[in-house]
Amino acid sequence: MTKRHPGLRKAVMRTFSLPSPL
Question: Residues annotated as region Disordered (predicted)?
Answer without folding.
Answer: 1-22
